[in-house]
Amino acid sequence: MIEKIKRDLRTKFLKKRKLVKNKINKEKKIVERLKNLLNFNSLVTAVYYSTKSEVNLINFVCHMHKNQQKILLPVINKINSPLLFKEWKADDKLISGKYGIMTPSTKFYATPKILIVPMLAFDKNKDRLGYGGGYYDRTISFLEKNSKILKFGVAFDEQEIKKVPTMRFDKKMDLILTPTKIII
């Protein structure tokens, strides 16, 4: 029952996110918020390389590279396993990984302290709806066993819903950033 509701919401919000107007300006606002929050050189931050109309964070990544901050990109190593993270330096070549997700061609893996997570939908309780593969939920569970990790969800305001249906393994974000607000 809940899986069908989530499937229907995924279909609805994939379409809704594609139709977001003024995306570039809204992405700039999200990037500015991220720059202000994460302006420390010692941070190890995992971002994602946007696909499927996700919030594009390339300007944030460029800022991080310019300030010599450590950036990681997720890698799907095995289906139904936690994500791994490879370091992404400014000059590193990206290659297409599983599901066409761009990943660094390097062999340098690291563990993030901050995880920036794409979302299809979210609510004021910091619950997130993803694509349904469970990769981020598994990854967060795995990482939290070893240390504290900050989880930042990024989305457009249009992706907010009253209540995201959740199951016991779904992980909340610590913070959600949109162009107009920060939910803590």
Question: What is this structure's SSE topology?
Answer:
Elements: H1 2-18, H2 23-37, E1 44-46, H3 58-66, E2 70-75, E3 84-87, E4 94-96, E5 102-104, E6 114-118, E7 121-122, E8 128-129, H4 135-146, E9 150-154, E10 175-177, E11 182-183
Parallel strand pairs: 1-2, 1-6, 6-9, 9-10
Antiparallel strand pairs: 2-3, 4-5, 7-8, 10-11
Description of the structure:
The chain is of the alpha/beta class. The chain has one domain: NagB/RpiA/CoA transferase-like (Rossmann fold, 3-Layer(aba) Sandwich), CATH 3.40.50. It contains four helices and eleven strands, in the order ααβαβββββββαβββ. The protein has helices at residues 2-18, 23-37, 58-66, 135-146; strands at 44-46, 70-75, 84-87, 94-96, 102-104, 114-118, 121-122, 128-129, 150-154, 175-177, 182-183. The strands form three sheets. A seven-stranded mixed beta sheet has the order 3-2-1-6-9-10-11, sandwiched between helices. The chain has a two-stranded antiparallel ribbon with strand order 4-5. A two-stranded antiparallel sheet has the order 7-8. A hairpin with a 4-residue loop joins strand 10 (175-177) and strand 11. Helix 2 (23-37) packs parallel to helix 3 (58-66). The chain is globular and about 45 Å long. The chain starts with a helix and ends with a strand. 32% of the residues are buried. The mean pLDDT is 93.
